[in-house]
């Protein structure tokens, strides 16, 4: 067995110290100079591995050039037939997104190892070309677990869960990565029951990533109660894992949805103890949670303690304050954001226009809506919707209608319903009837619009028209989506839906209410 040369040992030491770029430069200098440090079988695989890692990161263009120089070195020093160097080249080009070059190197290899096959297959799968990945996979003389896992992951990422399941079923042996990847696929596909079966089938083989995927899957599919229950299982003494920042970012939306603020405060305190509240993604989730639950002061404390702040964090505080009615404060933070050199984006401007809307700040709304062109931000339907709502609520119905007519892709149902509501508030029957006609074309089964028109007609004592609207409502089923309330008691959250008697303690609740009435 050939031992690494002195040159390879030096490069290894540089890489271990995190000096990747310097290690490649060191090789380039020694290659140009008359140097006793000649490359060996270890040199190019080592350098190409680091170039591939950079290609997969943020410095892709620079590492691509370095990789091409290393490829030239492989040819110059006669390592083209070395299976390790060629495999490293295939891996490098695959991670750089240059699959044409990767395939050329792969096809020219005189002999291939299992990692060679896996490298080209993973490259295709990562790019979303599952047909080519499947073709390579079928030609592999032997397959190991990482190869199967790469296929499962590739199919999951393109949304082909049935094909991922077929690969999973064909595996001679499965590990936690196999199961977790397929779990993720089912969660993305909305099938949390199938995902949970996989999760429950590996009680001793789970890792923290498995827990995070299942919790995030429940949150993604609006099953917040199940997400919180699973999170509490993760906190139990029988579980060897401790929540990390991914866990917190996954579970906080479920806390927000259910309003379980006792648990939310526990999560915040846990994040503070572990120093995770200084991570931008965790802090942003906490800001969003507090603002959606109406606690603006705590949200501002989290925001002020975070440094540096990225655009996502600024967007969360601006949007949250806007929705909570702190319009001037939201606009002030927007100005501060710009002074700090953070460029606003489309989401930022939704928050700004929403602040103007909630505060009735028509002039400011007009100003910033026009300013979007100067900022280089294209106007989307959400921005038009905010402006239409602002103008409509403040009585500028004609201007709101003109704005709708200028929308490049036309208004959606939400924008039309907003203007219809504004017309009803200001008693503009004629305009409301015109808007209603357009709204029916976009959303013919939106009962809310018919209810708005019925109430408008009733307010104007136009009883025949009101009865006609009532008939239309009855034809469509006669009911809007039921409202619901969430009540947090201890560590559990109970949901009560209007008109529903499905709660497990319904009879007990009715008895207690009856007793309370006797004392009122």
From TrEMBL:
It comes from the Eukaryota. GO terms for biological process: RNA modification. InterPro entries: E_motif, PPR_At4g14850-like_plant, PPR_rpt, TPR-like_helical_dom_sf. One of its GO terms (molecular function) is RNA binding. The keyword Transit peptide applies. PPR repeats lie at residues 113-143, 144-178, 207-241, 310-344. Keywords: Repeat, Transit peptide. This is Pentacotripeptide-repeat region of PRORP domain-containing protein.
